Amino acid sequence: MTGADLTTVHLVRHGEVFNPEKVLYGRLPGYRLSETGERQAKVTAEYLAGLDVAAVVSSPLDRARQTATPIAEAHGVDLQVDPRLIESRNAFEGRPFEAGPAVLRYPRMWKLLRNPLTPSWGEPYAEIASRMLTSVAEWRDTFPGRHVVLVSHQLPVWTARRALEGQHLWHRPDRRQCSLASVTSAVYRGDRLVRVDYAEPNGPTANAAGSVGA
Asked: Which residues, at least 6 apart from 63, have a Cβ–Cβ distance to it below 8 Å?
């Protein structure tokens, strides 16, 4: 098998967001990268710089577009936007959010916690997986034999990876392997998945259970 036989779709999580109020920001506008996040984006761009990248595509949210911009610039391609890469819907959006027993402080929200396997508080995992994998397949088929970079968010990237690997979609959020500005790479031969690789150009970062809006 040669490199020319393979097409790789890289799912990049955006960098750190400036969020001093610790709000679960989800799809809210105006949440941009912190200075650290901007540095992380540049490091990830350097990590991907030696690849034959045909397209760089981003979620429409600011933090993802900011992360994608240095990657696109490094390869001399225009940044494209795909709405399917957006963050998942979440009923806790806009609230300061703490994982674990702290959520019991909000009795009106208890009903949203009734089924963590769906999950009942947000966009179903199956819907996230469907839109992400549809995007992956479309961009893969558009540029066979090359690399494509899709910049998204922690939960969509992790859900897509679990779907690709044939795992059940429900999971513990604090056990996601999807650090800030990390790269999850789906390697294909034609439309057949060969393997999934994972890299942390910026090193590991904590995956707090409250980061479902990240």
From this structure: 14, 15, 17, 31, 32, 33, 37
Can you tell me whether residue 110 is helix, strand or coil?
A: helix
Catalytic residue among 10, 16, 87, 153: 87
**What pLDDT was estimated at residue 147?**
98
Segment 78-107, tens digit of pLDDT: 999 999 999 998 777 777 755 555 555 656
pLDDT along the chain (214 residues), means of 10: 80 97 91 98 98 98 98 98 94 66 57 63 91 98 98 98 95 90 98 98 72 48
* Structural domains of the chain in order of their starting residue, each with its CATH number: 3-213 (3.40.50.1240)
Would you give the distance in Å from CA 165 to the centre of its chain? Answer: 16
- Tell me, yes or no, if 87 is annotated catalytic: yes
Q: Which of 14, 75, 147, 153 is catalytic?
A: 14
State the residue for tokens 């995956």.
207
Helix (H, G, I), strand (E, B) or coil at 65: helix
Does residue 14 carry a catalytic annotation? yes
CB atoms within 10 A of CB 120: 13
The Cα 114–Cα 6 span in angstroms is: 43
